[in-house]
Structure formats: C-alpha cells, structure tokens
Amino acid sequence: MQEDLVYEIALSKTEGIGGVMFKQLLNTFGSAKEVFEMPPAKLMKVPNMGKFTLSKIKENHEAFIEAEKIVEHSVKNNIRIVSYKQDEYPKKLKGIFEAPPILFFKGKGNLDFPKSLAIVGTREASDYGKKSTEEIVSSLKEHNVQIVSGLAYGIDIAAHKAALKNGLSTVAVLANSLETVYPSAHKKVALEIEETGLLISEQPFGTLTKPSFFVARNRIIAALADATIVVESARKGGSMVTAEYANNYNKEVFAIPGGIFQKYSEGPNYLVSNNKAQIYTNMQDFVEWMKWDAENTQTKKTEKAFDLSKYTQEESKVLSLLIQNGEMLIDDLSWHSQIHLNKLASILLNLEFADLVKQSPGKKFALR
Fold first, then answer.
1. Which class is domain 306-367?
2. How many Cβ atoms sit within 10 Å of the Cβ of residue 208?
3. The pTM is what?
4. What is the CATH number assigned to the segment(s) 116-292?
C-alpha cells in the first residue's frame, strides 16, 4: 500500500499532470506504477497527452524522492493519505470533475458522513452572522449533521466552534498543508477538531501556500457537503465561489438574507434574487427540504430497536457506528471504534452469528 501511495503521489506531483489527467491515467492503466512503466507509445494514445507531459513522466526522479519524503513525514505525524483510487476516498468528493488526486487528513472523523452541511461566510462576521451560525448548528444537533467549513476567521471558525460545543463532528478543509494551521490563532480549535472530526488538505507536506489554493479548497468544501449555507458575504469572495461550486455540483444552496444596506448581505441577497440559493428562514423548513427529518426519525427507530445494554462495550461501539453510518469498511470501523482489526473481525463474526450484521464483498459491513 505504501509503495502504491509513493507512485500515486509522484504521479500527482509530475508537471503537466492535473487531477483530470491523473484519474484518466489510473483508469486507463490500473495503477500509477503501471503508468510509469508503460511504453511511451501507449501513453501517447491517452487523450490530451503531450510530449512535454510524457517527458516528465519518464524523467521523474525528483518527484519520487519528494513522494517518499511526503509519505515518511505523514507516517511520523499521524497524517493519513488517501488517493482517488482507494475505496476510502470520500464518495461525495469522488464524483466531481476536479476531484483532488490525493487527500491528506488528520483526526478521527468520517470521510463519508451521512449528513453534512457546509457553512461559509465572511471573515468580518457581524454579531448577526455569528449568532445565526451558532443557532443553525445548535438546531442541527438532534439530526447529527457534520459541519464543514474552512477554519478561517469569522463565520468559518464560528461554525467549527458551534459544532464542537454541540458535540457534532466538524471538518476543516485547509488551503495549506497539514504540518501547520492557518490562521495560527485557530490551532487550539484545530486540535479539538481532530478529536471528533477531520482536518483535510489536498496539499502535501512542504508545499508553499499560494492564494489560488484558497479558491481551490472551496470546491472541496462544497463537494463534501450535502448543502451549503452562505451566512454573510460581500458580492464577491470565497463564500460566493463555494456557492458557485455547490450549484455546479447540483448541491443545495441556501443563503441568509440581510439588510439591503449591509455590505455582507450583498452576497446572500444576490444568490437568492438570482435563483442561485434558497432563502434560509428557519431550521424546520430547512430540515424538511433536506428530508433530514424523515432520516432522523428512521435513525431513532433503528436505535430504539437495539437495546445496546445487552451487548459488550465493544459490540455496542460497532453497532452504534453501523446505526449512524450505514455500511462501513472494516478498516473504517476499526479506526472509528479504536478496536484492533483482529479483535474487530472476531466481534463482527459474533454479530453475524447473532444475525445482527451482514458482510458484503470488499469487507464491508452493515446492519441486517
């Protein structure tokens, strides 16, 4: 697996290979290692493959050295790496055209949380914006929704803090690589996020941050969430970019209206008036629109059907995770339950014998 990652990172770092070409090459030849070993004549048959990119694939020693350093650093710093080709890669992100070839993440959260909401807005948030954010997140507690944002000043950090306060998982998508937290003032919050959620970046160790990275990360925020709420924003800005991405991905977009003379109400008001967002007025209407009320009712019925007190602590952990997330890979179950794979396999076998759990191909497990 580590060798595969080195090849995949090296390919992603090869000049001329963007996300689209990366996916095309892996889908065509099966693996990054095969791409590097493929004769030039076969590589040239790949659409949009030019002589320059081909030469970089064939003369790529520096990228391999860099890739090995990235993997080594990630292992030392508990940074997990997942490539587009792996089953663990987020399904919500995998479907977008500009999906990152490689993702780096830290924390104990779920990359494929059943219900997720992106909350974005200006760095210069007003009291109205912060209060709106806090009330939205607080109201979502009973629906167990993961909050996605960008760890920036203003609305972003208010969303993350509210999620932590209400015991909700939250994901911070960073524009920089994970060896540092930007802004540094939010380092303490980032550490708290790791305990129940995730820090995610597409930038590998050692990457110098560029302004374009902040725009690019907005597509990840939009893709990871089922819906996006723009709380406050100027007519132009990162939040408006996130809303545009969400619309392009056919995700739901909502905006909180504001006064016509307020600078940071211009963005939300524009989205609503141009039919690029639904107007957000209250949580009940929002939850009904998202059909999360029906899902929540079903989850409660499922939870009620299980008297978890009848099972061991570890069995209860596993059952709770399957109730919450549906079908899961055994590796993900092990990670989230903190139960070693060998012991987990024995627990799952006992639950299968008890006719509570079923296994699908690929070591996936779900409730019966």
1. mainly alpha
2. 8
3. 0.77
4. 3.40.50.450
Candidates 53, 55, 11; CA nearest to 30 is 11
Query: Amino acid letter at 43?
Result: L
Question: Which residue from 115, 138, 165, 120 is spatially nearest to 256, judged by alpha carbons?
Answer: 120
Strands of the sheet containing 252-255, edge to edge, are 80-83, 102-107, 198-201, 170-173, 146-149, 116-120, 227-230, 252-255, 278-279
CA pair distance 181, 274, nearest whole angstrom = 36
Cβ neighbors of 8 (< 8 A, separation 6 or more) are: 26, 32, 83, 85, 101, 102
Q: Which fold has domain 2-76?
A: DNA polymerase; domain 1 (1.10.150)
Instruction: Indicate the pairing of strand 252-255 with strand 227-230.
Output: parallel
- Of 76, 61, 83, 106, nearest to 12 (Cα)? 83
What pLDDT digit, counting tens, does each position of 137-169 carry?
A: 999 999 999 999 999 999 999 999 999 999 999
d(CA 197, CA 191): 10
Domain boundaries, the chain: 2-76, 116-292, 306-367
